[in-house]
Design brief:
heterodimer; A: 141 residues; alpha+beta; 5-stranded antiparallel sheet; 4-stranded mixed sheet; 30% helix; 39% strand; elongated; B: 81 residues; 2 helices; 5 strands; 21% helix
């Protein structure tokens, strides 16, 4: 499962998508909208994407994760549009026979997603709005 | 040669549009396309970063030729997750 969607993310569904009898470990990461950023009180966020390319880049991450880690299944879902405090913006689930590669792969996927997948967030706070600066991929020029 | 240019996020606000069609010479590269766009949209000249670029949805370089490319997208630093 690799998907960009406007609808609310249901983390249990993302986790269920990777579940298999061979796996003793399932790791679920949920990235949620927090109420503060760089000293500002956040009211809500808007996520914008280049949807087709974002799904393509997320698929590449999934493929690369299979090459790098001893894992069985990966699901990546990112939401777009307006999100309120506490909403899930992204969910990543990894299943593996053993826990170490499941944790490692999940961490690698979210860290790399933040550098490569064409999605942007705009923060709305008391008194203004700002596009959030991304984490520049050190590998890009 | 026509190429479709797409903007995202803050670049949409700076140019006032999400896309436009550009007529460029055969043999033009991404750098050439960007220089034409900066002339059209002076707001693009004041960026504090160099945009990422994708040709037909694959990350590309500023030296990438745009011949045969249908869509060139300029992307601010990404901030998903």
């Amino acid at each position: 499962m690799v998907r960009i969607q406007a609808e609310a993310i249901i983390p249990d569904e993302v986790l269920a998508a990777v579940r298999g009898d061979r796996d003793g470990a399932e790791v679920l990461f949920v990235g949620a909208v927090r109420n503060h950023n760089e000293g500002r009180r956040v009211q809500y966020l808007e996520y914008h994407a280049y949807p087709a390319m974002a799904e393509q880049e997320m698929s590449k991450l999934r493929d690369q994760a299979f090459e790098r880690f001893e894992i069985s299944e990966v699901a990546i879902v990112h939401r777009t549009g307006r999100m309120e405090i506490g909403d899930a913006a992204v969910a990543i689930a990894v299943a593996a026979p053993h826990r170490a590669p499941a944790f490692d792969a999940c961490r690698w996927i979210i860290d790399t997603l933040k550098q490569t997948v064409p999605i942007w967030k705009k923060e709305f706070f008391e008194g203004g709005e700002v596009w959030v600066d991304g984490e520049i991929d050190p590998g890009s020029s | 040669m026509k190429v479709e240019v797409r903007y995202f996020a803050s670049l949409v606000e700076l140019t006032g549009r999400a896309s436009e069609t550009l007529d460029v010479d055969e043999g033009a590269d991404v750098r050439t396309v960007w220089s034409v766009l900066v002339t059209r949209h002076p707001a693009l000249s004041g960026l504090s970063y160099r945009p990422l670029v994708a040709c037909d949805m694959d990350y590309a370089d500023w030296d990438t030729p745009v011949g045969g490319v249908r869509e060139v997208a300029f992307l601010p630093p990404v901030s998903g997750g």
